[in-house]
Amino acid sequence: MNGVFWASFGAGFTFLMTALGASMVFFFRNKTNTEIQRVFLGFAAGVMTAASVWSLLIPAIEEAQSAGMIPVLPAVGGFVLGVFFLLLMDRLIPHLHPDAANPEGRPSSLKRSTLMVLAVTLHNIPEGMAVGLSFGIAAQHGGDISAMSGAIALAIGMGIQNFPEGAAVSLPLRQEGMSSVKAFIYGALSGAVELIFGVLAVLISGFVSPLMPWFLSFAAGAMMYVVVEELIPEAHLGEHSHTGTLSVMAGFVVMMLLDVALG
């Protein structure tokens, strides 16, 4: 089985869904409704939470057990490393979230539009890694049907949540005064990092297969950092929101059903 091909296919699908989401800039001319933002962000948070558990942490534990390791060590250790990796990136890379007054990360003279794109691009790194690693496992198991189905389920889930994520990039850029075409291009390209890191992850996994449980839990920790630090707080937008809460639950259920049905 060609893991690089399938990782490119899966990560390419998530990139395409980001581009489709970014195309919403051609249909929404006015400021995005707050409730719609809550639905988008909450759904993405739910999908990523379920994916972290079913598609990354559980496979990490299973891979560790089959390799004769103490399962809790790579599961917890990799998770913690993933959290601190994203925390470090958050501190080092200048970026700006929509509706935020001040950028985060190191001081920078970059434009607001560029900082907004960097914010989403940064958070797409663990998603690309997750998809690539899932197909890497399937490749290492000789294209095992169960492993391949799990990787496909993860790619579909990531793709579904990337649709609103693409819109969440392009629409604010349009509201910042950027042209619709340029906002679409920026929004679409923010998902390109998933394709890059998806392929890199499967390439690396081929050389360090004994460390696969660590990589899987690393991606899970990085994704959960994004969920807790950014997505869930933004889904509530400063106040309690049943819309945001229910959207998180809906995203979780969708990803869980995909993994159970295809895994």
Proportion in helices: over 70%
By DSSP, the count of extended strands is: 0
- Taking pLDDT < 50 over at least 5 consecutive residues as the criterion, the unreliable ranges are none
Taken from the alpha-carbon principal axes, the silhouette is: globular
Radius of gyration: 18 Å
Total domain modules: 1
Sketch the topology as an H/E string, one letter per element: HHHHHHHHH
* Biggest sheet descriptor: none
| Average of pLDDT | 85
Find the structural class using helix and strand composition. Answer: mainly alpha
How many helical elements? Answer: 9
Distance between the termini: 18 Å
Strand content: under 5%
Task: Please explain how this structure is put together.
- It is a single chain.
- With 263 residues, the protein is mainly α.
- It has one domain (3-27, 44-98, 108-262).
- Helices cover 78% and strands 0% of the residues.
- It is built from 9 helices and no strands.
- It has helices at residues 3-22, 34-66, 72-92, 112-140, 145-175, 180-189, 192-207, 212-236, 242-262.
- The longest helix is centred in the N-terminal third of the chain and has 33 residues, at 34-66.
- The relative contact order is 0.25.
